[in-house]
Amino acid sequence: MARPPPLGELPPGYTSPARPATPQILAGSLKAPLWLRAYFQGLLFSLGCGIQRHCGKVLFLGLLAFGALALGLRVAIIETDLEQLWVEAGSRVSQELEYTKEKLGEEAAYTSQVLIQTPRREGENILTPEALGLHLQAALTASKVSWDLNKICYKSGVPLIENGMIERMIEKLFPCVILTPLDCFWEGAKLQGGSAYLPGRPDIQWTNLDPEQLLEELGPFASLEGFRELLDKAQVGQAYVGRPCLHPDDLHCPPSAPNHHSRQAPNVAQELSGGCHGFSHKFMHWQEELLLGGMARDPQGQLLRAEALQSTFLLMSPRQLYEHFRGDYQTHDIGWSEEQAGTVLQAWQRRFVQLAQESLPENASQQIHAFSSTTLDDILHAFSEVSAARVVGGYLLMLAYACVTMLRWDCAQSQGAVGLAGVLLVAMAVASGLGLCALLGIAFNAATTQVLPFLALGIGVDDIFLLAHAFTEAPPGTPLQERTGECLQRTGTSVTLTSINNMVAFFMAALVPIPALRAFSLQAAIVVGCNFAAVMLVFPAVLSLDLHRRHCQRLDVLCCFSSPCSARVIQILPQELGNGTVPVGIAHLTATVQAFAHCEASSQHVVTILPPQAHLVPPPSDALGSELFSPGGSTRDLLGQEEGTGQKAACKSLPCARWNLAHFARSQFAPLLLQFHTKAVVLILSGALLGLSLYGATLVQDGLALTDVVPRGTKEHAFLSAQLRYFSLYEVALVTQGGFDYAHSQRALFDLHQRFSSLKAVLPPPATQAPRTWLHYYRNWLQGIQAAFDQDWASGRITRHSYRNGSEDGALAYKLLVQTGDAQEPLDFSQLTTRKLVDKEGLIPPELFYMGLTVWVSSDPLGLAASQANFYPPPPEWLHDKYDTTGENLRIPAAQPLEFAQFPFLLHGLQKTADFVEAIEGARAACAEAGRAGVRAYPSGSPFLFWEQYLGLRRCFLLAVCILLLCTFLVCALLLLNPWTAALIVLVLAMMTVELFGIMGFLGIKLSAIPVVILVASVGIGVEFTVHVALGFLTAQGSRNLRAAQALERTFAPVTDGAISTLLGLLMLAGSNFDFIVRYFFVVLTILTLLGLLHGLVLLPVLLSILGPPPEVVQMYKESAEVLSPPAPQGGGLRWGVSSTLPQSFARVTTSMTVALHPPPLPGAYIHPASEEPAWSPAATPAASGPSNLGSRGLCPASG
User: Fold this and answer.
1) How far is CA 997 from CA 912, 984, 1012, 1154, in A?
2) The pTM is what?
3) CB of 1100 within 8 A of CB of 429?
């Protein structure tokens, strides 16, 4: 029975076998996985050799292809529309939004500008005449822009008047819609622009306009009965001149003001209690919550104090402004268009915000915060701009790090130029990937421009370091023409595995139903793919060119100059040892000697001096005892020192230059980590971190406030903070669609409104005010004209045959009552006394519903505007003329069946995401209940656009992570061909994701679509830190401890360099002006990198040393009495040493004995000649380190 010899009997340079001298070198059922991986590595070897033979062509074509793709950036589109960025295409919200736009058009009815005033001292009462005076000053200053506010403001419900003089006067005087606490006082009139002129009177303005008095003065000159009734219904009264003055001493304070004669300042809290009114008391009621923030009340509910004031100015939409001034003399010479109108509005809004912020002096007791929709657009544009300085700075920093990290004292080993070229190549690959995304039509956004260039750079440079490290650590004796193939053979599997997992991770992150994050994920996946192509195809060409530079003994970076002192390696051909010195079954023994280059100071010649003889000497003690061999084929380090204190070599490197990360991992880190007590501590601490993270995961809240996005310390952030604190109000609408009969579904519509109104988040109207919906306004209006008709009928002013003596409302009711809805018999006068416009149940007769809607829309413009119904199709225009004698005015066209209408609501008290989710769920439930009654409806508004994602965000996150972990397991199991190892990798990745999620909870980072993308991508990024170690462990030999130590030695340096490069790439994010970028990208990705380093280099080696799979290759030795059994010294192993008679001026030469065994050759593989043949090739020497030592090497002809 064959058994392996003690570890102490194995030579320290022993590598994995390559040719079977004894049977059973493959461990059981692992023959197929080993063969398949060897086949894949053989393909990579052939690829590398081919690239090396044609390195110049490959480099040229690669750069040409990447440069051509990078030109696609010229057609890149940066998306800043919030709806396009955050509303999932094809989702329920997207379909509802498309329906709204189809019926109403692309743009909103108006745009808002908001002023918020707060005291500089926290908690100070703002309900004082002085504070309101400052608010008026700021509002007046802000509205004094080049275009007068009265020309571009939104005016709601302008009535149609047949009298031309009154119509022109109304057009000039009709007030703007401004929701302000100043409307409780006469000073609110100062914000209303416009004026009218009447002979014999001063200019008519709202500051001196008494509508009741004006109508009395104009009564003898014009028939204004209909207009008078309109004002009476709207409860206009004396408008602003009947309200108290904030400053009664003002010379323009009207005599009709309640405090004009007393000269006493009003009680501001009492006046503002219950809210304010515009010029119409009935239709323009501004509730307290719209005007005041931070309110405090007494036990009886009376308003005592407040901490904030708010005024909202409404402007026309660009289309409305264009239509309003089309053909006007003021715009005929400026190429007036809808785009020009939009430009005017944007310029006005920016100037409004600027003037408002500058309106009060710095030493004022109050402060003004201003904001507009254009301000938000400007923030998004600034957020999406590429910071050239940060991009250049980040890439320069990466260039410097790569160059410094790869520079060596020995010019033949230095790779500074390779580092520079690698970073520049990754930069070009990133640019080409983004250019390809632009060509594919994937829109860019803030995440793309602010984050992706740095993230992709950090990830891409990781593989650059891995290949560069592997290239310098090629096995001794590797022919020059096979160096690139050897490098790809040893590292290609790891690079392929990490790149595929990264791409799969980002593609899985595209499952997040947010367009902005989906685009970011797809772009990241494409960029990772371009990085993979650059690293596997183009960068090996760079390494091949650098190899030529090293072979020609040129300086690094400054390759035009020759190296004054280059190291040379003399390869010693295999020699036969004495009888009985080779274990039975070993084909032959080879030795590779790396000697010092001795530089003659006098002649500056480089002379390599070898000892005259060599003999076996015990090696120094090893930190891991007999389990850790000295690394065969490591970088050219000087293991010996000069004998004595005589003359020293002139070209000796400093001791500090011999230190590297691989040496640290072997001699210090791995021995410490793989001790029993250290393993226990690592497992305990990892469990504690996992448990703490699970608790932290319970602290993570959903949400992403706009204050998180806007830079702190800016005026915009101050406004948003004040608004969130004091005025968390949102305008929403309950939209009813087509597809059902409104006339026969009135009861269901009323029930829907009642259910929606009962939601906790809906702001209830005052008890004295009717619900603000079109159906209630319409019904109340019909009841009003019915009452007028009944009164006129009872008094005899209206009879069966005449209505001209009745009131305007009575005549309207008469015309509606006689309608039958039958095209053949449209009128029936007998219905005047037998039917009502509204029945006892409060419902409108279905046959009158659409004809009555036409009359209401035409006769009650203020009520229609206040209802915000937005009917589609819009009812036809119909003008009522009580004195029409032709009878044509009796024919009322019926409105078309409605396909769109809406009930407006206000949501309040929405501070946390949980509040939004509760409100959304309640609204959806109300609509679902109405759907069962036949009414098709949906809620609309910003809360439903931007917060509905949180209804299923966590479920989407868990689904994406689980699917990705499963995909990672399958990919790792497929490429590693070892489910055991793949399971351990997935376990570590899952722990990383959970711990990152828990740390977010402790840092107060909320869960939104952006952290979800990073959390999902963390699985792919984490593979960068784990798969290299796992693959190194899987392909090593020996016990679990030994294989874990070997894996650390091989991968510690490239993994650490890759982590540092990632951190350097992310470092530029820390300088962003947006705290959102710093917190949600820099902090989270930095923590992810540190967790990856911790788990990849600490936890995973410990788990592998305890639970790792068995080795794929086991060297079996036959028992034989002829086997040399020298005394095994402490520390184990054998060393080649020099004779004690070596002259002192010579360097000590240390070499390792290498046992070369080959697995069964693959089809097409190159069979090296047997050892007894004289034509020995260095290619027969196997790899001394790295996972490639199991791979077959294909024939690689030497290049000329």
Assistant:
1) 20, 20, 9, 48
2) 0.72
3) no
